[in-house]
Design brief:
Elements lengths: L4 E5 L2 H11 L7 H30 L7 E7 L5 E2 L2 E4 L4 H18 L3 H4 L1 H10 L5 H20 L2 H10 L4 H13 L1 H9 L5
Parallel strand pairs: 1-2, 2-4
Antiparallel strand pairs: 3-4
Helix pairs in contact: 2-3, 2-6, 3-6, 6-8, 6-9
Length: about 200
């Protein structure tokens, strides 16, 4: 099984775009970001292989890339392609958001959307009154729940849910996962994966 290595990158040019977007006042310096990357990478490397292996196992999807670049900038809304994360006050948040974005990335790795087409069709039909953001995050949060509980703890899972309570679509996805159970949602997702 192919397990990718996450390559943490700092691009001054890319970071300047975010700095200009948010404004320079209080924005972290390149030195602060580079120092943060070293700390975050050390923490991530402890769990990298087991988390990435488990994500593939849980989802029924395979990693296709040997390397995944993760750009780290001062401030941004995190996203999965190109994977970009800001620095966080608490380093655990960085790892948690990295895992979140890696799940998105796994869903869209080459061939995985085709392989999971029936799974996504099922979720879009079942939750057709929900927003697309909510629908996408139901299986993502179910998978992430299992990662939290297997490798970290319930406190960290609860912290993630609490952080999302001000974002209605994300909160709704967490509410669905809590109501229906993460194992049940994972089962519904994986039983429709094309073998």
């Amino acid at each position: 099984m192919l397990i990718p290595k996450i390559i943490f990158k700092y691009s001054w040019v890319y970071d300047e775009i975010w700095k200009n977007k948010f404004g320079a006042d209080g924005y972290p310096s390149s030195k602060q970001i580079l120092s943060y990357i070293k700390r975050a990478e050390r923490l991530w490397r402890k769990d990298e292989n087991k988390v990435l292996t488990e994500l593939s196992k849980i989802s029924g999807l395979q990693w296709k890339s040997k390397f995944i670049s993760c750009y780290v900038v001062g401030w941004c809304v995190p996203f999965s392609d190109p994977m970009t994360l800001p620095i966080y006050k608490y380093i655990d948040y960085f790892v948690d958001f990295l895992i979140h974005e890696l799940i998105h990335n796994l869903f869209t790795q080459k061939g995985n959307l085709d392989k999971s087409k029936k799974s996504w069709g099922y979720f879009y039909r079942k939750y057709n009154k929900e927003t697309e953001t909510t629908i996408i995050h139901v299986p993502l949060y179910a998978i992430h729940s299992r990662i939290y509980l297997k490798f970290y703890n319930k406190k960290r899972l609860n912290k993630d849910m609490k952080l999302m309570k001000y974002l209605p679509d994300y909160k709704r996805a967490w509410d669905i996962v809590q109501k229906e159970g993460y194992n049940e949602i994972i089962k519904e997702f994986t039983k429709r994966i094309k073998k």
